[in-house]
Amino acid sequence: MSGEQANGNGVADAPGAAAVSTNMDSGVAAVWNVVSGDQFEICMGVNKGHVELKKIAIAGVTAPRMGLKSLQVDTKDEPFAWESKEYLRKMLLAKKVQFRKLYTSQSGALDYYEVRIAGEKTHVGLKLLSAGMVKVAPGNQVKGLPFYSDLEQAETEARSQALGVHASTGTVRDLAAAQDFPEDFLAQNKGKLRPCIVDYIRDAGTYRVVCLPTEDDPRYVSAQILLSGVQNPTFRREAGGVEIESKPGNGAFFARAFAIERILGREMSVHIESIQRQGGAGAQTISFLGSLIHPAKGSITEFFLDAGFGQYVDWSAAKSYSGPDALQAAQKRAQDARKGRWKNWDGKQDSLDSFEFTGKVVEVLSGDVMRIVNTETPERQERRYYLASVRGPQRLSPWNAPCIEFLRKKCIGKQFKVRLEYKKNISVFGEGAHPPPSNEETQELYFVSLLDSSKKNVIVDAVEAGMVMLQQNMGGPDSMNERSRDFDALQEADAVARAGMKGQHGGDAKAPKPPAVTELVLQQPGGPKGRGPTTKKELSERAKSFEAQLVASRSGHDAVVTYLMNGSRMRLRLTNEKITLNFQMNGVRAPNAEKNIPAAAAANVPKPEPFGNESLQLARELCMQQDVKVVIDRVDPAGTFQGTLYLLKGNGRQDMAMVLLEKGLAYCDQWCNNSTYWGAEGKAKNEKLNYWSLEHEAQAVVEVATAAGTPIQGKITQVNSLDSFYVVPSGGADLKIQNELALNARSFADEPQPQKRNVYAVQYWEDKKWYRGRLEGKGSEGLWSFSFIDFGFIADVDNVKRIQAGSSLLSTPAVAQHCGLYGIKTNDEFWEDACGSFFKKTDGKTVSGTIEIAHGGVQYVTLFVAGACVNEALVKDSVARLTRKQNKPSNIDYATWKAAETAAKRTRAKLWRYGDVGSDDEEY
User: Fold this and answer.
1) Residue 82: pLDDT above 90?
2) 559-580 burial, b for 16+ CB within 10 Å, e for fewer?
3) What is the mean pLDDT of the chain?
4) How far apart are CA 788 and CA 670, in angstroms?
5) What angle in degrees, to the nearest 10, is found between the helix axes of 300-307 and 252-263?
6) How far apart are CA 865 and CA 452, in angstroms?
7) Is 482 helix (H, G, I), strand (E, B) or coil?
8) According to the model, what pLDDT value does residue 51 have?
């Protein structure tokens, strides 16, 4: 193995290329390979790593033909063919020869040359004839050679002595293929050094060798060897035989040239370590993982690593002849010397061995893809990772959902040691669709193993359960280096799963039947019919129909978070009820997070807000795909359920809203009536945490929660339903605010892009007066829809101004109080009648009463007009009925309410026209 000089790519030039001094018909060159007893190949040069080999046929002689053993061809040697080739190999390999073209075959396929070893006078053909290794070739072209008589004389002398091919009985090599009996071949040779000759080099990591006979095995055995402990740069072949590096500029061609010049045709020893199967059933290629040992230079793997032509691979190094320590030391020497691939190495990058971190699994995307957060860095970066050496079920497979659920229960929310096994650049997938990269900058996919505290690869259990399949190598250029270091354990688990017909191995028929799920989420256009609501109206109606059932359970529902819109808004699957619904934490809002969506759809998506991404990331880490408990309070008009979400911590639970509020990653909304929430927000404000570290100019006006038992008096300004109307308290606070706006509003700056939750000065189009309004969203015809917080109604406006920071208009609480009638309810059929009757009894009149309970931002009251109880009057009118489950109202003779309902039932009017329908279903 001669010395070499580095080229511009940081890899060594093949020395043979520098020795060439030739044209196509004559010259001097080094012999790089011997094909048979009368043909060999010389190196004409190395162009950018591509070796140009020229076949030389020796003029005037013919050798016995070599046989070939492969999947497609099985021919035997002619007698003495192997001995003839070996004689020529030992004579010429790695030596310089002089050659001169003498003639071309009649077919024009092959040129014949006079060949001499450089510095010698004797024609190589004469040497072969004298040794009995070849015969004189027939044909007039041969007879016309100037040295034909010398050829005849040499052959005659060899025949007279019965040398070589002239012997009475010619030997025929017994050639076997190791792939025909892989287990036996491994058992015979594992852990031993068997003499061999390197017959073919596909790339720097893949070799075909001919194992020489031993006492234990008298046969010649052809085997494909994959070097263990090293990942060599590779290439792929495309249409027309064009070779392209699997990663541009990776030095694959130079590495192969390096190997061909030094190893091809050499006598070595092979150390067989394990069987490696590539490809699927019916097209499987069997190779052997092993080490090649040079008699003088030792391990070829070490030599490659030392020269910078490979990268250490841990999974196979443990079995290699040299062992991990020697191979790592060889790579370290190359790195320190900046050889080959390490020419521009910065001491950090491209080291698979050092790519390990502690991470938390936050989402299982499929049977072989997860999103993991690096918990060792302050940024807590979340990335997509692919599981090494396994493949999950296809998306439409009946095993897909069970597989994801298996991995969810095993991995989600838990911390593991994440170990990188290998990378793939998305360019290997060619044109068209490809998996999303783990690293957007390098466009690489990271394939990893997850190790628990006992250093066990947790995916082994998934393989043994048959949930994921062992990924058999498909014969790609990097396939043998692209595998988990725990591949042996995965293979054993796969064998157990196959033997027991577990999971996917049992077929689709054995897959668990998917449960029937009620979808209370808006379905995508073009989706399966009948799966769920397709319009907003249908969603609202269906969600409302489930409200009573889901609100009734105050102990909560077991659920799994399946999707997060932001830190406080998500999609849940209620596990026992088998319902999927949209959920919003009651009284709390998280800032909007940035959405990675096409520009065409961005107009309908809320703009990102400060710390929206941080809030979403915290929620993903704490509850995404995790088991939680939810208590549902109500459903809003859009069909979103509101309530409290609890994280399950051992035997206890933790309010997720409090976690967000305490960290300054959420804020209380205008309907929040939870004093604990307000306290947590106030503390985060004082400490200027996250969202509160910034100045919020047009902040929301605080709505003060009123305690139960508090009296209320004023006028009703807006009636939406019996459980949603607004009362403006007496005292003139609303007029005072309006007067201040009249004086100052025109000096405020225009706001062309108001933000949700914020309060602005808005002008009502009908009376041209100024009001305080909170943005609800987009209105009709390009206007903005605002809630007039001091009066309770909603209207579209086009004139919006920003209230100056520090103004009392921002610190003064909203005047209108959101109320509902306590203890009574109506139904959908008589909703309008009930609202009409309620409006007539209260319109323009002063109402008074008591707050019985505040819940979900609404104050439920017993209401009086001129001493008459409005709640009782609506029951008497047969447009409302009593709700049995609530506590009796304070300071009221509840018996009169019950008597009023009994009397209404006897009338069989309105609500009672069919009798007491539904009373059996009423919850008392």
Assistant:
1) yes
2) bbbeebbbbbbbbbbbeebebb
3) 86
4) 13
5) 140
6) 69
7) coil
8) 86
Percentage of the chain lying above the pLDDT 70 cut: 89
Where are the strands (E) in 441-554, listed by range? 444-451, 469-470, 518-520
Token reading at 877: 């009118």
pLDDT tens figures, 84-105: 999 999 999 999 999 999 999 8
Cβ atoms within 10 Å, residue 450:
24
Side chain identity at 696, as an amino acid letter? H
Quick one: CATH architecture of 175-342? Answer: Beta Barrel (2.40)
Domain with CATH 2.40.50.90 in the chain: 15-166, 175-342, 355-510, 518-693
The backbone torsions φ and ψ at residue 330, rounded to the nearest 5 degrees and listed phi first, read -65, -45
Amino acid at 488: D
Specify which residues 267 forms β-bridges with: 197
Region 355-510: CATH code: 2.40.50.90
If pLDDT is split at 50, 70 and 90, which confidence band does 151 have? very high
Other beta carbons within 10 Å of 199: 15
Q: Residue 354: pLDDT above 60?
A: no
We find that the CATH architecture of domain 711-911 is: Roll (2.30)
Percent with pLDDT over 90 in the chain: 51
- Give the confidence band of 475 by pLDDT, cuts at 50, 70, 90: very low
Q: What is the secondary structure of 57-76 as a DSSP string?
A: EETTEE-PPP-EESSS-EEP
Class of domain 518-693: mainly beta
Q: Residue 422 pairs with which residues in a beta bridge?
A: 447
3-class DSSP state for residue 386? strand
Give me the long-range contacts of 890-899 (CB less than 8 A, separation at least 24).
890/709, 890/850, 890/852, 890/862, 891/850, 891/862, 892/862, 896/872, 897/823, 897/871, 897/872
DSSP string for residues in 332-380: HHHHHHT-GGGTT--SSTT-GGG-EEEEEEEEEEETTEEEEEETTSTT-
Phi/psi at 508 (5° precision)? -65, -30
Give the pLDDT score at 574.
Answer: 97
Q: What is the DSSP letter of 437?
A: P
545 pLDDT above the threshold of 80: yes
| C-alpha closest to that of 721 among 830, 810, 612 | 830
| DSSP conformation class of 164 | G
Residue written as tokens 């541009």?
A: 248
As a whole number, mean pLDDT of residues 550-560 equals: 93
- Of 110, 109, 114, the C-alpha closest to 124 is 114
Report the alpha-carbon distance of residue 889 to residue 159 in Å, rounded. Answer: 126
Summarize the confidence of residues 542-560 as an average pLDDT.
Answer: 93
Enumerate residues 6+ apart whose C-beta is below 8 A from 130. 154, 157, 158
**CATH 2.30.30.140 in the chain, residues?**
711-911
pLDDT confidence of 885, banded at 50, 70, 90? low
Q: Average the pLDDT over 505-528 and give the result.
A: 87
Interval 904-916: pLDDT, tens: 998 888 888 877 7
φ, ψ for residue 668 (rounded to 5)? -75, 140
Local structure of residue 430 (DSSP, 8 states): -
CATH hierarchy code of domain 15-166: 2.40.50.90
Separation between Cα atoms, residue 220 and residue 579, nearest integer Å:
67
Backbone angles phi, psi at 21, to 5 degrees: -145, 90
| Nearest-angstrom CA–CA distance, 377 and 381 | 7
| 531 phi, psi to nearest 5 deg | -75, -35
The pLDDT score that the predictor gives to residue 192 is: 92
